[in-house]
């Protein structure tokens, strides 16, 4: 009898734990406005880091690079620090996938757009890292053939990132109106 009661107690404990988790998840879900605000706040932080990295790249890497090109003192270190900041912000942005909305349609739309945004952000970071490696290793001093390709890839990845950012804003826009 006690053995059967022990089994029942375990099952009841599991069921009640599941119900409690469901209640907590429902309680932790954000309303539409708070959900949007949380997403937009983090996306803005991430996008500002990317914008600063792209802007600084354009300012610190000359339009024409030859084997004899030298960089301003600290230019490559600045770009490396901006890369690290953008990478850290992107890692923080990944946490948005765990965010819950009381509106499942909003959550699904945001998750899809955030997943796309993160994929494209990571692609940009890959190109930025390749550019950094090329210049920090001074490979350009032996072989400038990669300069145009790296530059084109980085600019293209940044443009695609901007599009993904705009797509994410667009995905959230239906949930901003007063009708929701």
Report on this model:
With 180 residues, this protein is mainly alpha-helical. It starts with a helix and ends in an 8-residue tail after the last helix. The model is unreliable at 1-5 and 15-25 (pLDDT under 50). The chain has five helices and no strands. It has helices spanning 2-28, 32-60, 75-94, 104-136, 147-172.
Summarize the structure.
It contains 5 helices and no strands. By secondary structure, the protein is mainly alpha-helical. Helix 2 packs antiparallel against helix 5.
SSE layout:
Elements: H1 2-28, H2 32-60, H3 75-94, H4 104-136, H5 147-172
Helix pairs in contact: 2-3, 2-4, 2-5, 3-4, 4-5
Give the key terms.
180 residues; 5 helices; mainly alpha; 75% helix; disordered N terminus; single chain; 0% strand
Rg is 23 Å
Provide the helix percentage.
over 70%
Strand content range: under 5%
Mean pLDDT: 88
